Amino acid sequence: MFVEHRLKNPRVSESAYIAPTAVLCGDVTVGPHSRVLFGAVITAEGGPVEIGSNCVIMENAVVRGVPGQETRLGDDVLVGPHAHLTGCVIEGSSRIATGAMVFNGARIETGAEVEFNAVVYVNTVVPAGAAVPMGWFAGGQPAELVAPGDWDRIRAVMGPLDYPGTVFGVGASDAGSMMPDVARRYARALALHNRDHILPDERHMLAYDHPQ
């Protein structure tokens, strides 16, 4: 399904494949020979999403663009089923495995890998060629890798990276008390989906020639 959102339409290379049950919403670009499989959602929620060439977005993955943070996948990127990527950059020749999460402001450098169910926290850089192990936490610039059971160290790494400010635009001390306001702001922004239009002829309207 292709959806016009905020007056922007998805743009897809003629050589790309979009599964019938995938959703591309808003200012989304998909490059040559890329594949978006069944149930995947690529949505530009106030910020564009750019998918390079020869990328594979597998079943039920979510790639979300947000205001103020670049959302881009370079060439030759594999995103596994049920992975979640928000406001992040995945450089070329990288792999994001099944169930992995990459948060706002993060960058996965060329050739790096994020293994099954691993978490790359906000404002984190995973260096080129590095791997975040299965189920582990990565935080910092460059990323410190922390085993899943080491909660004290995970909390210590999380603190300076400012999740509330990066994601919600509020101070850490205000995050809890301001959640009702944050939820209302999100709800107002998402209300723009009431003006969306499902596009009837995907290939005819949305195909484009991607620069080589």
CATH architecture: 3 Solenoid
Instruction: Using the CA coordinates, give the radius of gyration.
Output: 17 Å
Overall SS class: alpha/beta
What is the assigned CATH homologous superfamily?
A: Hexapeptide repeat proteins
Number of domains: 1
> Approximately how much helix is present in the residues?
10-25%
Q: Any overview of this molecule?
A:
The chain is α/β, with parallel strands linked by helices. The chain has one domain: Hexapeptide repeat proteins (UDP N-Acetylglucosamine Acyltransferase, domain 1, 3 Solenoid), CATH 2.160.10.10. It contains 4 helices and 25 strands. The protein has helices at 151-158, 163-168, 179-190, 202-206, and strands spanning 2-4, 11-13, 17-18, 23-25, 28-30, 35-36, 41-44, 49-51, 56-57, 62-65, 71-73, 78-79, 84-86, 89-90, 95-96, 101-102, 107-108, 113-114, 119-120, 125-126, 131-132, 137-139, 144-146, 197-198, 207-208. The strands form 3 sheets. Strands 23-22-19-16-13-10-7-4-1-24 form a 10-stranded mixed β-sheet, covered by helices on one side. An 8-stranded parallel β-sheet has the order 20-17-14-11-8-5-2-25. Strands 3-6-9-12-15-18-21 form a 7-stranded parallel β-sheet, with no helix packed on it. A hairpin with a 4-residue loop joins strand 22 (137-139) and strand 23 (144-146). It is globular, with a radius of gyration of 17 Å. It starts with a strand and ends with a strand. The mean pLDDT is 91.
